[in-house]
Request: fold
Amino acid sequence: MSTSAIAVATSIPPRLARRDAGRAIDGAYQKLCVRSWIDCGFRVVSVNHPDEIPDLAAAYPEVSFVPAGRDASAVSGRRTPYIADLLGPLIEAPEGVVGIINSDLVFEPSVAWQTWLPRIVEGAVVTGQRHDATSILDGTFRKYYWGFDFFFFDRRSARDLLETAAPFAIGLPWWDYWLPAALSLKGRQVLTLERPTVAHLIHKEPSLDDGWRQLAISFAMFIVQEAAKFRAPLPQGVSAVLPLCHLLAQMPELRWRHRGADAEISQIAVRYVPAITQTTASGPEDDIAPVSSSPDGLVPANVFRRFAERLSSGVALERAKHLEREGNTAEAGANFQNALESTPRDFDLLCAFGEFLLRQGNTAVAADLLRRAIESDPDHRAPHGPLAIALYQSAARAEAIQVLEKAIAKWPDFDAARDLMAKFSGGA
Reply:
């Protein structure tokens, strides 16, 4: 019998690109993620294309690597393994509790994973929503509402999932909607975990491409087919999306492949997520002391220091945006300021607050915040245009043009900066 109570399956990519407060940390971030899993007591299995395994095994000796029999490259262009291939090692695992996790998550250090989670998995699937940050140690935390990144369940559930796992693949859309729906249709309760939780460095989201549409239709057809077999009241998540899934499943392929159904497809998330996150659970709290066993402090415990404060700052940031849209600029400004006091180096916050102040005519403070945003992430083009506008409106026209010249030199395709340059150079 394994000494671990939980086995998890994932697929560690051969290369991971991540930026933390503008600094490339790539492999260091992946090592941080893996360390967090091991510190939580998980036995980790990574399913990969055979060609990827030798280098990955050398980099992560604490992980067991299993060759994938096939991959979803025809859908995504990447050698992403199918969920079915991740379920195989879990079905054979000696542990009573198993899980599937995305590979770019930092798990919160907590004994609850080993001591409390196994007690609530019986008859349930446990999932959760990650907390995104632009700076993993200092930025705001914002819950990612629209998706799920980890699932824990028992081995019997793993066997049940095999029945409908095709064509879903880890790292591609819709697998995180299919999995809880599939287990709810097998009588499992869906529990959304509040704490302990997971953190995640924000990165560019994949576009709504043909693969996204194709897998959405597969999800819709799965819901329609399995709901028709169900002989009891449908689970909330399934009933919430069933009418829409009927519509999508009957839609001509020519329409959904050419973006004709994107609006309807997106409505699945709007209806599904609130329906399956109604039942929450929280484990016993741990006292997590910050540690400094690495030169840059990049260890799991430090990721979750001041968690409540940083999450509150993220809530204030999103509230500020909402209040401005409603026209309540005074309250919006107060929320921006509250967030800034707790997380003064957060890139998204500096950009959003700077652009808000620019719209309010406070160009001097706006320029200061936007400069700080560029210092935080010099390789992100977003703050350069607003900074140039703030400087120009503050009568610092030479500096405004200089900002644009540097941005255009760095990003020759930065058309918005070129348009501003033409406007400013013309003396407008």
Summary: The longest helix spans residues 210-229. The chain has two domains: 6-203+276-282, 303-425. The chain has a mean pLDDT of 93. The CA atoms of residues 289 and 301 lie 7 Å apart.
